[in-house]
Amino acid sequence: MKSILFLIAGLAVLPVSGKEPTIKTEIVTVALDDLVTGLYFHNGKDISIFQANPTGLGEPLKYEGPRRFALRKSEAEFSQTPPLPAPFASVMLPQDANRVLVICSKAANDKVRLVAYDIGSSKIKEGDYRVFNFSRTPVSAILGEAKFAIKSGSDRVVSHHSWKDEVLELDVDLAIIRDGKAKRVYSSQWGHRPGRRNFIFLFDGAQEFSPLRICRFFDVMPAPAAVTAQR
What we know:
The chain is mostly beta strands.
């Protein structure tokens, strides 16, 4: 009997499970397919509108709420008596990230699939490039002074010291790897600005003669707030 009482007492001091911790971050969005709009999420004490555009990264939005970022199709859903219906789409946000990229893509039954990446200041610096390979083949790349390969379904940050301070024109060559051989599919020059954090998305092309589709976006982190000297 005593052992049962001790067990009950021990359970009483355990933290309550099921309640997600509140996180604070900034969210930027991008849509890989069509415009995503008409969705809502709980943000602190308010209900905010969610939107993702295929033409660029959205304006940073301050977010305070559960780590599970959930989208619903109407504001009325949030005021329903629990348990609430399943959200239209959701994703677990990375912890301890001061900025998060939420990528939206099409899913079955006209729903939206969300993927979240930590793009905080500790993960990608000004002048760097983060390359996402969403195509079905590995890609070999030359980006200015950097040479690298990136597997299908993976991403990586590419950096070079010369990209930090100068406005440049970068020579860019991309090749897909098929049957162990590299086939060049893209060659160009890209303008580079040192204050930008750059995001490159690679997809399968629509035509055999154009097997790789490329989307380029950039993000600018706000300057650190000035510290006023105290007398």
